[in-house]
Structures are given as structure tokens and as C-alpha cells.
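C-alpha cells please, single chain.
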Amino acid sequence: MWGKLLGTMFGFLFGRWLGAILGFYLGHLFDKSLRQDFDKVGGFQGFIKGDELHERQALFFSSCFAVMGHIAKSNGRVSEIHIQAASAFMTEMGLQGEDRKEAQHAFTAGKSSDFSIKEAVTDFKEAFARRYDLRQLFLEIQIQMAFCDGHVSDAEKALLKQVSKYLGFAETHFLFLLKRYQAEFEFRRAQQAGKSQQQHQHHGHQGAPQPSGLTRSKALAVLGLGESASASEIKKAYRKLMSQHHPDKLVSQGLPTHMMEVAKRKSQDIQSAYEYLKKS
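Here you go.
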């Protein structure tokens, strides 16, 4: 009942009688607990024109690769490592044919001397002003590009700070994300070392195995927490990060479907760190 009533009232305020009818229908779906059916039709996003969603996805796609190109050029020249990282990122996304050419074109445009990082990121911020999680993921992707050679140079860090500011984030939050990504990088590398160690032992090779390097402090850092974090704080941080990086939710807000893999991998890293902490 309350869903129909409130839906009708707000619908009338914003769209007169047509809005009231739409509001009544949406309220009806909630009142009947048809959340599953509501999600199947795309929720509120399903009532937004498909072209608008596609425009946001296209903007995210082109802006992301253009800014990546600009960051890669921040040290004066684009290194082979940055080129390989960008190519690997495109491969991870499954980009082929025209999609890959568009990504390469945007990356090249970002390297141009007349590319305005402020204009590009400000336009992006305006388009995604109400999509905090997408703006944060955008920044995390740029941090990932800068970190592709294992460290962030002073020039890259200064540029990333600018990007973060244009996106509307405080410097403290940028430093938090930078530290957390470094933790993800180290945790993932430690995991891979551990898997290699297990395979080595499985095949019967002799010799003392090297420690994998997985530690509680590294897992906590992936969740953005310190050594003193309690069990409840760990669970709260885990749930928050998983919500922020949920692939389906991000795609419905404007994340290009190709980039779902980025969100999936971050979710897997967060999940792995949490599982490790539950066992430790």
C-alpha cells in the first residue's frame, strides 16, 4: 500500500498524471514484493532510455583509455611496459576488432600534447556525478595503469592526484585507494607465488619451498584496514567493498560491459583477502 501511495505522490509531483501512473506501477511492484521481477526488467534503470545508458558507457570507455594514455605519457615518454599493460588490459576485457581499435585510438589521443586532462575528467565527473562507485572504479583503473611497472613515479602520482581532484575526491581518499591497490597487487602476487609453490610440490620437485608471502596484514590492507581491525570491522569493510565493485550493479549504472572483468577481478581479490582473514 505504502509503495503505491508514495509512488503515486512523487510521480505526480515530477510528472503530473503520467508520472503518477508510472509511480503507482512501480509502487505496486514493491508492495507485491516482486523485487525479482522488478530487477528482471532493469529496475529503475529499465525506464531510462537505452541510448542514455549507451552514451554513458561509451563515455566511460573512451575517457578511461584516453586518461590511461595521458598517465602513461606523464614521465615524458610512453614506456614499453605501459604499452604492454594497456594491451593486456584490452585483452583482459576481450576487446577485438573495432572495439579494440577504438580503445587504441582513445589511448593515443590521451598521449597527445594538446589533450586536456582537466576537461576530459571534468566532463566525465559531470556525467557520473551521482555514480560514486563508478567514479571510484575509474580512478582505481588509472592507479592500476600507473602501477603496471610495480611502482608509481612522482610524475604519475602528481597526475593521479589531479585526476582524483577533478573526480571530486579528497586527497586523503586518493592516498587510501593508492595504498589499497598496492596491497591488492602484493596480495595477488603472493597468491600466485603460493600456487606455484603448491604445483612445485605436487610434481615432486625437491628443495625447500619458498614462503608464499601471504600475511594477515596484507589481507587487511586489501580491505583498507589496519592491524587492530576487529572481526565486525573486517566484515563491514568486506561488504562495503563488494557492494562498490559488484559488476552487474556497475554495468546498470554505466560501466561498459567489456569492463565487467575489471570489477570481477577486484571482487575476487576482495573475496580472497576476506576468506584468508576468516581462516587466519
